[in-house]
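seq:
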Amino acid sequence: MEHNPQKTAEELTIGNRLALAKAISSIENETQEGEEILRLTEHHTGKAYLIGITGPPGVGKSSLTSLLASRLRKENKKIGIIAIDPSSPFSGGAVLGDRIRMKPHNSDENVFVRSMGSRGALGGLAFKTAQASRLMDAFGMDVIIIETVGVGQSEIEIARTADLVVVALAPGFGDGVQAMKAGILEIADIFAVNKSDLAGADKLAAELSGNYADRSNDTPVIKTNCLTNEGLEELLNEIRRLKKSMLESGIFIKRRNERKEQELKNLIQNIIKRRTEAAVNEFGGIKKLLEINGGNVFQAAETVEKKNRR
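struct:
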């Protein structure tokens, strides 16, 4: 499979886990091979259902993700998990905290867990999360769960990637709910009040059911507890109900079309970025480009733009 995108694509679509891992690494590294694999597997996508799990740090997103995967496996669903971890300041790779917490699934051939470093991307998602989920889709996953890094309001990018978003919160945030309402709360299709055994869980659930959910006061609020499995079945039933409702109302197709539009924008931006970098290198790099243009940054940028037009 080495440096053979056609072979890697073929192996991936018949369930070769090594091929899937290699393909995801290729797109993370922004190689031409990775782009070719995406192109070759495109017609195998569109079947998987993408669930986003987001929320502030410490609310139990990883535990909730693991439990959902375990419950869905009882229905013989093939599960992909993309866990966005903070990037290492040294290597740029994922810290792998979530991979450690997903140990219960290590021996299950029908669960594929991939940690991806955020690499400084805003919105709680790695730059290549959408492409990684597309590859898992082509691999044959029925459900793909994307767990974001957990950095607060900037988590809203998950709404452009998943079919349905679960916003997990936990008691103990005080005025944090009101502080976040201009960002993360509005993207919720479902609120999960996790760690429901803690004091303040009922109060938080009541607040979320009231005026804090600006997008819709009837956004479902479910209390969950990963230690006792409380609310897990209710959460899954709500996910199924909303999926059916979104399909019937057309929201499901609308979101997927918006996702394709966003992915196309990202691809175009990557093309422009590569061409710009190539043009700068032809001039001998940034320092040389500035020298050529007498230190005028605007003139230097225009020089690169003219080069790209040719």
